[in-house]
Amino acid sequence: MNILVTGGAGFIGSAVVRYLINETKNNVLNVDKLTYAGNLESLRDIENNERYRFSQTDICDRVSLDQLFKDFQPDLVMHLAAESHVDRSITGSKDFIETNIIGTYQLLEAARHYWSQLESTKKNAFRFHHISTDEVYGDLESTEDLFLETTPYSPSSPYSASKASSDHLVRAWHRTYGLPVVITNCSNNYGPYHFPEKLIPLIILNALAGKPLPIYGNGEQIRDWLYVEDHARALYKVVTEAEVGETYNIGGHNEQKNIDVVKSICQLLEELAPNKPEGVHNYLDLITYVKDRPGHDLRYAIDASKIEKDLGWTPVESFETGLKKTVQWYLNNTDWVQRVQSGEYQNWVKTQYDE
Ligand code: NAD
Ligand code: TYD
C-alpha cells in the first residue's frame, strides 16, 4: 500500500514512519512542514530506504496537497501533523487554530476530492485516519473514572479545543460525504525522539545539565503514559483493521502522578548517569515547584478495552521498562539532543521558565 503520513518528522509521526518502513512492506510519503517540532534527524535510520519519500509541505496548502495526492495515489492517510504542546497553545494559540483546525479541513478536502475519483475497489479500501488525543475529553474528577470512546468532549486548553474541533470535522466529513475515516484518541506518549519541551525529556535533560526540574503546581496531576512504539503499533492496527467510522481510545494502563514520574527519572539517572554535574549531590534535589499551568487538567486515564477486544492490541512496554529505555536513549543520543536544543528551543525555555 501507499501510505501518506502527515507530521512524520515529529515525535509520534517519526515512530510511525520507522514502524511502517521497518515492520511492513508499504510505501510511505511523509508530508511535514518542519516546524520547530519536526526533525528529519529522527528519520536518519530509514531516510535512504527506497520505500520512503519526504515532502516539506504545509497541510494548510491545498494546492500542494492536491498535487501530492495525485502523484502518490495513497491507499491510506495517517494524519498526525499538529501543533501539540499545551503550554505553547496558552502563550500563542494562532498556529494551533491554523494547523489543527484549518490544516485538518484542507487535508480532509484534498482527501475527499482524491477519494471521490477512485474506482470502487480502491475507493472502498481507502482510509483517512485522524490521530487525536485523550485531552479532548477534558479531565476526570474521580479517581475511578476512565475515558471511554463515548465520553462527552470537554476540552480545557486551546490545544485540546483545536484537536476536538478537528475530530468533529473528521466525523462530519464521514457522515456528510461518506469519507471512510477512523479516529484514535491516545494518552500521553513518551520514548525516544521526544522534543524536550514535554515533561519526560525536559526532566531528563535538565537533570543531566544540573538545572531545576520544574513541577507545575503541586505535582499531583495524573497522566496515563504510553510508550511511543506501542502507540505506533496500535495506529497501524487501527488503520488497517478497524471498521469505517470507528473511534478507538489508546492508553497504556500507566497512571502516574507528575511528581512520581520526576522522582522515577531521578532514580534512573542515579543508576545510569552517576557522574552528576558539579554541585549536584542528588538529582532529586533539583526538583523545583513552579507556578501552575492555567486551566491545568488534573487527571487523564484511558479505558483501552475496546481496542483490546476488537483488534487484540495491548501495550508491550511497562512504564518501568519504557522509562529506562527512554532515559538510556537520551544518554546515548547526545548529538540529536544538541541539535534540537539549539535555536528556537532556547527562546521557548527562556520565555516559559524565566531562565
Ligand atoms: P510533534 O509536535 O512532535 O510533531 C508534530 C509534527 O507536525 C512536526 O513534525 C511538525 O513539523 C508537523 N507540523 C506541524 N504543523 C504542520 C503543518 N501545518 N503542516 C505539516 N506539518 C506540520 O507532535 P507529536 O507528539 O508527534 O503528536 C503527533 C500527533 O499525535 C498530534 O496530532 C497530537 O495531537 C497527537 N497526540 C500526541 C500525544 C503525545 O503525547 N505527544 C498523545 C496523543 C495524541
Ligand atoms: P506535557 O508533557 O506538556 O503533556 P500534557 O500537558 O499534554 O499532558 O505535561 C505532562 C504533565 O506534566 C502535565 O500535567 C504538565 C506537567 N509539566 C510540569 O509539571 N512541568 C513541566 O515543565 C512540563 C513541561 C509539564
From TrEMBL:
One Pfam family here: GDP_Man_Dehyd
This enzyme's EC code(s): 4.2.1.46
Catalytic activity field: dTDP-alpha-D-glucose = dTDP-4-dehydro-6-deoxy-alpha-D-glucose + H2O
GO molecular function, one term: dTDP-glucose 4,6-dehydratase activity
Keywords: Lyase, NAD
Origin superkingdom: Bacteria
Gene3D superfamilies per UniProt: NAD(P)-binding Rossmann-like Domain (3.40.50.720), UDP-galactose 4-epimerase, domain 1 (3.90.25.10)
The NAD(P)-binding domain, residue ranges: 4-326
SUPFAM superfamilies: NAD(P)-binding Rossmann-fold domains
InterPro entries for the chain: dTDP_Gluc_deHydtase, NAD(P)-bd_dom, NAD(P)-bd_dom_sf
UniProt cofactor(s): NAD(+)
Family matches, as NCBIfam families: dTDP_gluc_dehyt (TIGR01181)
Family, similarity comment: Belongs to the NAD(P)-dependent epimerase/dehydratase family. dTDP-glucose dehydratase subfamily.
Name this polypeptide is given: dTDP-glucose 4,6-dehydratase
Organism name: Acinetobacter pollinis
Organismal lineage: Bacteria, Pseudomonadati, Pseudomonadota, Gammaproteobacteria, Moraxellales
